[in-house]
Task: structure prediction
Amino acid sequence: MRGAGIRGEDRGKDCAAAGANGGAMTTAALPIAARAPRRVPVTLRVVASVAGVTAAEPARAFPDADSAAWVAALAATGPARDQAVARLHALLLRAARFELRRRGARADLDDLATQAADDALVAILAKLRTYRGQSRFTTWAYKFALLEAGAKARRRAWQGREVVLADESWALLATPGNGPGHSAETAELLDAVRAAIDTVLTPHQRAVLIAVTLQDVPIDVLAERLDTTRGALYKTLHDARRKLRAALTLRGLSPDTEATP
Amino acid sequence: MSDARLSHERLAQVLGPSGPELTCEACFEHLDRYVELERGGAGAETAVPGMRAHLEGCPACAEDRAALHALLDAAGP
Result:
């Protein structure tokens, strides 16, 4: 693989929101009808190759009256819904501003916050039916605003910066010297990891692994540059890690015990 | 940071979590519930298995979790 540069342009494409903005727009009422308390296994989606994981679904339909009121108002029609949407947008805007300030954003803060709130609102209204009351409604809504604000902040920080997918980058996985904390086992493990990166990964897996884990390129920034989604890139990263671990195991090395200082 | 620690941390980032983990999409789907359970001292990982491993392996999702905690801290009870 030769080094390849990808320069970021703010294309306004929100790859980071993969999984957050899907679904059809709807204002239909949620299934608020009281459910009998129950605990049923729910199979969560896990990265391919790992076993299915189950979780117990909470018994409550809604955690509090405020959450039920939010859902009822957003599922209503006419002025009541308009007012609820306006209140929700204000809530999302405050959340987005908070997150951007927390990240130290200065330039274009209001513009970025408004974009984040707008995008979060669209996503929330599209996904309203999926809110199952497993948290307070405001907590559920906040995560959309924070996702959008975080992704926009990361993209803004990397705007104009080149991501170099160079095959020399795993030199960043420094060869330890002979000082305290360094051991022959650690050196052997590092050598084995470098060799595995070079031999068992596909060029795409190698590029994604290096960019995200060694060059600290945010995964949603890389997703935008590669015209894919955050979820798809993480799947690639997961597969690459799995291959590396398998290669280490074949050599009789134990990554989890050796990787701990 | 010492070279040794840097190498170990980089190794951990490169190799990622060892156990089963959620996808980014599933992480986002369950993030609100997970964070509220964490704040309530309940068994978040038991309720959402695979979440902790994913948060260890995915810096962006870990940032989203930290952001939600920070916002709820600021918002109060």
